[in-house]
Amino acid sequence: MGKMDFKYVRIQGKELAKNTMYAKGIFSMCWQLIQDDVMEQEDADLFREIDGWFAEHLPWPPPCKNQEPVVCWFKTDNSEEMLKMIRPAMWLLERYNHPFYVVYTNFPGEIVYEDQYQIAAKTDGYLQIDELQSSWSPEDA
After folding, report:
1. β-bridge pairing 118-122 and 101-105
2. Phi and psi of 65, rounded to 5°?
3. CB 39 within 8 A of CB 33
4. What is the mean pLDDT, run by run of 10 residues, along the chain of 141 residues?
5. Residue 129, φ and ψ in degrees, nearest 5
6. Positive or negative CA dihedral for 4, 8, 12, 16?
């Protein structure tokens, strides 16, 4: 299955957001680097420009404004421009050695908001941690 066979894509980190118990998104990670005085001024200004472009071109979902436990995903079928504009923010994360992942899915959860470019899906705030499963290695048989 190729990445374009998926409906949604998200850039997220290793840290969890307290209200969602889900991996923080790229905007939250970059703002955190600015608030923690990690980013140099020039890089912080670059991110502010990126964030401003998105504020102008991408609707801010009401569930996000209300800090509801939702996670936003870009739609893969028509978000080429969005993904192109987010690449400099990904570069900033790399520049500051901040790990992130590009995650593709068809199962984001219950969709509670949708516009032309994105969806917001509910999270249940539950983090499942499973016991270590027994090995499936043929060497252990």
Report:
1. unpaired
2. -60, -35
3. yes
4. 80 93 95 98 98 95 93 92 94 98 95 96 86 79 57
5. -120, 115
6. negative
Q: How many other C-beta atoms lie within 10 A of the C-beta of residue 82?
A: 18
Rounded Cα–Cα distance for residues 2 and 134 (Å): 30
| Full-model pTM | 0.87
- C-alpha separations of 80 from 5, 9, 16, 26 in Å: 14, 11, 27, 17
80 backbone dihedrals φ, ψ, rounded to 5°: -55, -45
- Beta carbons of 90 and 26 less than 8 angstroms apart: yes
Instruction: Report in angstroms the alpha-carbon separations of 137 from 11, 35, 50, 132.
Output: 32, 45, 46, 14
Q: Which residue range(s) make up the domain with 35?
A: 3-140
pLDDT recorded at residue 1: 54
Q: How many domains does the chain have?
A: 1
